[in-house]
Amino acid sequence: MVLKSDKEEPEGARAAVEKILNMKKRGEKISALTAYDYPMARLLDEAGVDILLVGDSLGNVVLGFPDTTHVTMEHMIHHVGAVARAHPKGLLIADMPYRSYETPEEALRNARRLVEAGAQCVKLEGGRAILPQVEAILEKGIPICGHLGMLPQHILVEGGYRIKGKVEAEQAALMEDALALEKAGVMAIVLELVQKDFTPKITAALKIPTIGIGSGTACDGQVLVTHDLTGAFPWFTPRHVKPALQTGADIRRAVQDWVASLKQS
Ligand code: KIV
After folding, report:
1. Rounded to an integer, what distance in angstroms lies between the CA atom of residue 188 and that of residue 78?
2. How many whole angstroms from 262 Cα to the centroid of ligand 1?
3. For residue 61, which of 225, 222, 252 has the smallest C-alpha distance?
4. Is residue 124 in contact with ligand 1, taking CB distance under 6 Å?
5. DSSP secondary-structure letter at 192?
6. Ligand 1 within 6 A of 122 CB?
7. Residues 6 or more apart from 131 whose CB is under 8 A from it?
8. d(Cα 97, Cα 101) in Å, to the nearest integer?
9. The whole model's pTM is what?
């Protein structure tokens, strides 16, 4: 992937993208976690995370919506700004929310708004179906991360979250989509809930990195929703995550102790 030298290229994006591409060349795994606010962005950065994703999972784990289709450009801009103010060293990717990239013109206009808010790269869900939008954004020098497999923004049409790439026709479509995105110039592709025996084939077929979530261990990197990893959204944990912390339980306990000691004073 070659970044076009163009004045719209986000600040620091070229070096940050090249660092990620080189990690695949060296065989070094890429770490990516979601961040939606300043303190979490600082903590992830201090811990050395390679990519900070302001995901539209914001809708589920921060804003209290049932799925990502409720997230708007205004929500994303607000949270991208908060994460950008932490000046993370890792690549700052922002999701383009539901229905914010229906046409190439709209996609470019909204990608620019996310870049103005501080994003260095934008992520769009889909493959060949959104190629004109992808090309319009890349043409202006704004890096893109693709997203294939289970597409959360399609939840209303699909009716549930299920593994993709179990049958040959789905595998062929996934491969075509991945190759088309790479040819267009995207810098990496998130593979969400892709059959774990199939991800090695996509990963081997691409020069750009694959970043898996619920897709086995064979991708070039892994991304998780930070609230899942830290137990900060204890009411739902996806099957592919083993929380490393019990933040929700710890907060409940600390608050109960504080309330109890206050009542006794
Ligand atoms: O919105 C998000 O957090 C994402 C990840 C699940 C990849 O897109």
Report:
1. 25
2. 40
3. 225
4. no
5. E
6. no
7. 180, 181, 184
8. 8
9. 0.96
Q: State how far the Cα of 241 lies from the Cα of 34, in Å rounded to an integer.
A: 14
Q: Give domain limits for the chain.
A: 13-224, 231-265
Return d(Cα 99, Cα 125) in angstroms, integer. 11
Beta carbons of 77 and 113 less than 8 angstroms apart? yes
Take residue 169 and report the two structure tokens written for it.
């026709």
Range 13-224 classified under CATH 3.40.190.10: no
How far away, in angstroms, is 56 Cα from ligand 1 center?
6
Name 36's Cβ contacts closer than 8 Å, sequence gap at least 6.
54, 55, 58, 61, 62, 79, 82, 83
Average pLDDT by stretches of 10, the chain with 265 residues = 64 96 98 98 98 98 98 98 98 98 98 98 98 98 98 93 95 98 98 98 98 98 98 96 98 98 97
Taking residue 261's Cβ as centre, other Cβ atoms within 10 Å add up to: 9
Distance separating alpha carbons of residues 148 and 212, to the nearest angstrom: 10
User: Is 223 a pocket residue for ligand 1 (Cβ < 6 Å)?
Assistant: yes
Between strands 91-95 and 221-224, the pairing is unpaired
